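Could you join me in thinking about how sequence relates to backbone shape in a protein? Would you write everything just below, so we can both look at the same thing?
***
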Amino acid sequence: MQNSDKQLMDSSATPVIQRVSPRSATGALSPLNKGAIDWGWQSFVAYGCHNFVVVVDTQHMKVFQTLENHKHDIVKVKWSKEAHYHDQWFPYNLKLASADTGGSIVIWNVAEATVKASFSDGTRAVTDLEWLSGNDSCQNFLAALHPPYSIIIWNTETGSKVWKKSYTEVLLSFSFDPFCDSNVVFLASDCILFVDDFSVSKVPSSNGRKCYISNPSTMTSSLQSLNTLSTGGSNRNISEEKSKPRSLLPRRMKFLIREESKSGSEEAISLNDCLQLAFHPAYRHHLLLLYPKEVLILDLEINQTIGIIAVERNGAAVTQMYPCWQREAVFCLHETGSVSLRVRHKGTSLASVCTPSEDTVSVGSFDNTVELCYDIRCQSDALRLTKHARLMGMAVCPKSECRVAVLISDGRLLIVELIPSQQKVDLPVKEKEELKERERPTSCCQLPYSSSVPSPCLWLSDMFGSLVQNLDPYCDNEKDILPNSMSLKFLITGYLNGLAPPPHVIRMCPPVTFRNWTVYKPLMAIGNALGGVQVFNMATGIIEREFSLLTAPVRGIEWVSLTAFLSYAYPNMMASCGKVRNELVLTDVQSGRTKVLRSEKNEESPIEMLRVSYMKQYFIIVFKEEPCEIWDLRTLYLLRIMPKTFPTITALEWSPLHTKKHHISNEVDGSDIQDFMSSFSVSSIVSKSSVTSKTMVLTREHFVFTDTDGQLYHFSVEGNVVRDGSKIPPDAGMGTITCIAWKSDHIVLGDVDGNLNLWDLKNKVSRGIPTHRGWIKKIRFGPGRGNLKVLVLFNDGVDLWDIKEAQLISQTKCAKDRPKVQDIDWAGSDRPVLATADGCFKITDINLKVCSSPLQDHHPTELPLSLHMLPVKPAFHFKSLLQHQPWQESYTLSIKEEDGFSPDEVSILQKQIETIDLEIQEYLKHCPFGIAERCLLVARLIGDKEAYQFWKVAVHYLKQEELALEVKTSDKQEEKDLLELSGDTFKPRQKQSCIDNQNILSPFNEEYLDTCFDTICDNHVYQKLQLERLLLHDSKRTTHSQSRKCAEQFLLLGQTDRAVQLLLEAETGQEHYYVDSLRACLIATIRSSGASQSVIKLVATNLIASGAISEGVELLCLIDKGSDACRYLQAAGQWEKSVRLAKVILPYTECQEVLKRWTDYLCSPHMNQKTKALLVLLSMGQFEKVLEMLRTFRMTERAALFVQACQEFGAIKKNEQTVDIIDTVLLDYARYLLSVNNRRGALHYCEMVGEKGKDLKKEIEYLCEEQ
């Protein structure tokens, strides 16, 4: 109410009446809602509450939108990934999918609160949902798992099936491989099902490959094995059957075995306890299986566990996990409500099973195996969960991966944030000064710009470095501490509370009038079963106050002013006598002060109803089996207790009519109530009222009630005098009256048989309407002068009638399987409110159908930074200002109408800018690496995943390009200095590798790309990752097939000595001994002599032609024909494998050729992965080619910003070869800016291209003059 007070003090302020739009408020969740929560890149959390979808603004922690269309409880919600380029034809939008227990799937436009599509297949609950993101045109396709056997691809634009595939196993969930679009894995009831031919366009031809988790060690109980797992797999036992060099087996190693190779001697581990299955988005081929006490990490290349994340022996079980894509980390939600972060480290070195022979020339790292270990980095405190509060799910913010939403069954949503408890160690001052004073080796680069603003630390990748930076398998020193590490901790930074447990009693505050409209707020008081009252703002959807007033369920609420209300309660009757202890409390909403009335009373008959007079002078308390009491509201003094012979009241209502000559004011403004709150002394209240009574005339008020016979009585109250009036006999055909409503000259009575009796006092007309719907529980008139609409509450639903016309306007009936309506009221003249038994209430339209509204109808006072909720043109205009403003003297975040926005748009955009952290606002103004870095930051802020990936790779390789130029210039200078000193022109100099460049002190030294980029990473980083991975496989291998695969990979990596060792491990009695021995001899011979390469190449070619591609490629790599091997792999359609091989073994030039062919393949119509092709070209340093492709693909905005970023880095220079494409791109961007109403920007780019933009410039100037 602070804003209201300011408005009252400032007479010049124009108050605005808050408009109430249809919406819903939710409370406790259904048990079936478990797991129905998701956090999208758009920064919103969506979760299911019964049949509602609740969307939460996580920046301001308030309900942003509620959606209702489902008929059953919601079991899954998924935000659209929208991993595609956005422009005016493919704008930002809030698209969400939800599925329920009845098998229905609804696609929502959240901003408009409309259903885009709805479809179903059967009536069983959908068990899993996932949006597809394989190619650039599949953003509208949704994969749904329909039990028990089917997966269906739905086109969400048309609501039609693309295809349906049924399997033979009962499927529980699935996960798509983030590195290969054709791979998907299903978690079945007793196995894991692998599918490697998944495609959006056609049904998978195979039925998948069934695999089981098996433990070869002889244990008495697999459950015992699961509960006693160790994290490193370092403990080993010796098999009694084997005493050979490979006899050491991990004591608790798990394998994936195919169904056809399953034997009875192997102990299968049940998957019934498996809670979740997911691919690791940071590492290729890593599959995570969640069990209550551990997480198994399977490597699908060797079909074996390579690591185990075990819960401490006394630790709480894990219910959900989230593997991170930015770092090698996993979030875990424990059953106590705590959240833990487990981060991978290199681990302790272990003695290798196979020791290299003395005459073998091998790197030292093969004596030490690499262990996959995850340690707890930090863990939040446990929550106080009761039997009525259970964990329902966890969702992690995908763009920051530092914020975790925890959903609890009582409707609470907690935001647990990962923050640094201490700042990370910065560079020494000496190195800082050296970096700052370092002279630029090239004059074409303008970067980095001088800036004193530190880089913001808001994302997981900022809090600790990637393990790749410390992953040096050729180093004997252990580096367990992650680079750039800092101390981390979890804090609860957000809390959202829902409605308290039902049953609910609702009562709207007095309606808005000409007297109170300057301070009016549409508040609804909601009483709950715990004795509390929540005050809900019906316009903003926020619980403004919450009071714990009573010790029993609230039975009724009546407002006595705009800021105070009476509430009463009594416990559920346990004694046979029917006596209870009533509680009656007066509460002031603003101050929170309370006054307990009738505290001296002991057990008595329960309060049946409480009614406050229209003039707010009196209130009547009606008891079930005792006479009623009449109280003076202003003095809180009991005026009269009716005699015991008084009729039993079944319904009562105060009259809105009064004698005008005694009337002073139509309303009590609440000042009297506030005055008495200054003291709770009864004597002071009475004395003060006696003084007041001398200066104020009391108004006579009237009330009517009915008895059990249906007879209507009329009484009047004036001061402390109660006078009996007339008596009207019951109408024929009416049963016992249960409720009365009175407005103006109209009275409506309802009875136990569902009959409505309409009285027109002015015309003295009575009319009966039989509804045939049973007992009428409540009748409420709508507010507003002349509004004669009434809500009628029945046991099975609600009717809305126009009393003046005696016409039914709308009707809603509760289905048998849906919650019933428990209470009704009005939030406005055309806004009925329905409170249901599931703990929710709905503000509907006049037809009782719609309970959701577009976001703009809510008129929120606080807005998150989101382009998804803005109209198309303002959204992209705003985005262009955030990214680059060369037409301004300096970068600014101040939005004005001069920029081309309307006043309403300026207001909205300024609210969004205010939500950006001040640290980020300052960094946006002073980005050291200019346009590219600012575009990267903006992409993260607005939640544009595709733009983030592009600019992340672009910034990295633009820095690499400039760093290479620095190194080249530095090398030339060193050679010149050496020549001047020694004069020896023939002295050789070793070329510095790109790995060594990381040690060069330069502002362009960039951290490695995250491992989630995989083949987009630098070649030397990718080689390092593959070697580390191979060492891990080598330490875990237990079968001949695994040893054979490791030998092949060592050979491809150039580690021929280790490959020979593995091949020579075969025993003489084994069937593959002879073949392996010949292979070892061949490898040793070729590497020593190098003869007969033509014969080997011929044999390799024949093997490939006959289908033995792996063997042929192995031979080609053996004779240094890796380029040919990659070409054969591409011809066989194994493009990903050819690229991985090229990045590992080929020189830079030959690798570029392989990647170039790959980009052409990605851009082909049947692949349609242009976005990925652009990333590959960026990794190749082909910036001009990227620019051409951006223009070809009509990515106008991206192309213009990219060419300017390249010019800042000096990667693209404007010369005779590039001037045409640069000017064309900038001119296209000028047209684009003009289309989004950014005329100032369009004029600037017209001037940049000179004569080519002359015509467009004239057009813009003409439009400006016309406006």
Q: What stands out?
A: The two ends are 42 Å apart (CA to CA). The mean pLDDT is 82.
